[in-house]
Amino acid sequence: MNGEEKMVAALDIGSSKTAVLVARLDSPENIEVIGVGVSPSTGIKAGGVTNIESTVKSIKEAIEEAEIMSGVELDSVVINVTGKHVKGDNSIGVVAITNKDRIINQSDIFRVIEAAQSIRIPADQEILHVLSKFFRVDDQGGIKDPTGMVGVRLEADVHIVTGSTTYMQNIDKAVHEAGIEVADRVLSSLASSYSVLSEGEKELGVAVVDIGSGIIDIVIYVEGGVAYTSTVGIGSQHMTQDISIGLKTPVDAAELLKKRYGTVIAAEVDKDESIEVPSVGDRSPRMTSRKLLAEIMEARMRELLELIDHEIIRSGQKNKLAGGVIFTGGGALVDGLASLAEEVINLGAAVGHPKGFSGIVEKISSPVFSTATGLLQYAAQYTDFKTDRKKNTGMLDRMKNWIQENL
Ligand SMILES: Nc1ncnc2c1ncn2[C@@H]1O[C@H](COP(=O)(O)OP(=O)(O)OP(=O)(O)O)[C@@H](O)[C@H]1O
Ligand SMILES: [Mg+2]
Asked: Cα separation of 216 and 12, whole Å?
């Protein structure tokens, strides 16, 4: 990259907050975060825009804050995509190697990936990612990069992620109205996995589970490649609602109680311990047992973990996850999560934080920033293409995308 410095920016539009990060790169590996902007988000629910106006406002605020901190004026950002409209499917492509020497070259790889994409995609869906798991050359499987190998038959196993065009147009509209453009889109779970996982963990087999405010994003890696992607349409906000109803307290107060006194292991809370709970309306606060708070939280978290387990089982890969489950996203900060998860899911569990950045690391090392920091990593990988690459993706661009993502 000629020692030249480049800027990249990420926009994570979440159900509870909009986050913008600006970073300086002197190589794809050295990402120095120089600007952070965070603004409360109210117009997004589980990935979808429910109110354009407030979404635009939230994006504007976050952008402005990040611009002021970094001193960089942003014109385009890499954004996250999530929601029920996103679909992940495995597919196989097969081509014959017809060159005289039968040596596999890049154009064969393009062809086989194209063949793998010929699955039926519903009319309103478009391709977001084509992620290779491995190639097979004749009878030899498990190949990461077949370039230069000799064979007659080349097969590619890929994971294809598609998303609703309408959904993406709505997000594009909001971003555009906030005064910037979308440079690229990345599946939220994939972004989070970039910032919290090591290559070794991907090889070992691991599930990354980002528990947000309104949605849970899941990606499963087996033998280094993406085997499964999915979402569950509830999140940590539902726990707050349960607390609000169960303890008859306003939602804001429930949110504070959850963070300050909460745990999902009720058995560890002394039954005599009490906490002050604000009442609704003008009534004065009451004292309530902290154990009751923990019981409400544990019940909801067990339900979330069972839904997550259901997804892991559905992937057909549960017995291949030697690396266990890595939880991230703001909802992963709740006390006691890893031990409850080990009990419910019966796999190793840990909380993953974004790593591998320099600059303003203290703030962005929270699991709340896993998606946003992962978007930066994605942007950093592509930055060479960025300068002359037109927005959006013809087949050739998609191939470049694919090669970048996988080789
Ligand atoms: N210390 C904590 N203990 C418990 N929960 C927490 C803590 N810190 C944050 N949370 C919860 O994490 C959630 C916010 O997480 P995050 O910022 O990852 O969500 P988001 O990206 O805005 O939403 P989504 O990804 O669902 O669209 C909130 O529900 C918040 O209550
Ligand atoms: Mg999120």
From this structure: 14
Q: Which ligand is nearest to the CA of 47?
A: 1
Q: Is 255 in the pocket of ligand 1 (CB under 6 A)?
A: yes
Domain ranges of the chain: 87-163+393-399
Ligand 1 atom having least distance to the Cα of 15: 27
pLDDT for res 354: 97
Instruction: Count Cβ neighbours within 10 Å for each residue of 93-130 and write b for 16 or more, e otherwise.
Output: bebebeeeeeebeeebbbbbbbbbbeeeeeeebbbbbb
Is the CB of residue 214 below 6 angstroms from any atom belonging to ligand 1? yes
Neighbours of ion ligand 2 (CB under 5 A): 14, 212, 371
Residue nearest to atom 19 of ligand 1 (CA): 212
Q: Which ligand is nearest to the CA of 375?
A: 2
Q: Would you say the pTM of this structure is higher than 0.85?
A: yes
Q: What is the pLDDT of residues 224-274, one digit of tens each?
A: 999 999 999 999 999 999 999 999 999 999 999 999 999 999 999 999 999
Enter the tokens of residue 306: 């069972």
Report the CATH architecture of 87-163+393-399: 2-Layer Sandwich (3.30)
